[in-house]
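TEACHING EXERCISE
Course module: macromolecular assemblies
Task: Read the component lines below, then compare them to the predicted structure of the full complex.
Student: A.B.
Group: 4
Components provided:
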Amino acid sequence: MDDCIFCKILKGEIPSSKIYEDEFTIAFLDIMPVNKGHALVIPKGHYETLLDIPEKELCAWIKTVQKVSGAVMKATGAGGFNLGMNNFKVSGQLVPHAHMHIIPRFGDDGLKHWGQGNYEEEEMKGFEEKIKESLK
Ligand code: AMP
Ligand code: ZN
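Instructor-supplied answer key:
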């Protein structure tokens, strides 16, 4: 897609710190890292969200996520990593080309997980049923 920043990175039209490439995917460093070594993995096809990626590319993409996650851990000496993916604007997705964030984590890095809440009585059952119905 012509005005997509990640497609431009793919085509080499703008520079990136590319760390991996294969037939279906590339990975490069996020320019504004949550922690240093923060990487992004994208499918080469311009798909906006997780829901749009066809199966073959999806499988290749998650394999690259696994491969690069191990390398990021090894290279940074991280004790672990978070995977994160924003899907659609309301979730905070700024670049509309599907990408997985790989964020190396260190014991003392001060990052906090998202907040969690509770369900009212019977409310959880309602969500369970609606989601199961939506899977049909
Ligand atoms: P998201 O909010 O999930 O869409 O995140 C987009 C990410 O892309 C942000 O973490 C940005 O720092 C990162 N980003 C934006 N432009 C570039 C670029 N030219 N090279 C590398 N990372 C980028
Ligand atoms: Zn794109």
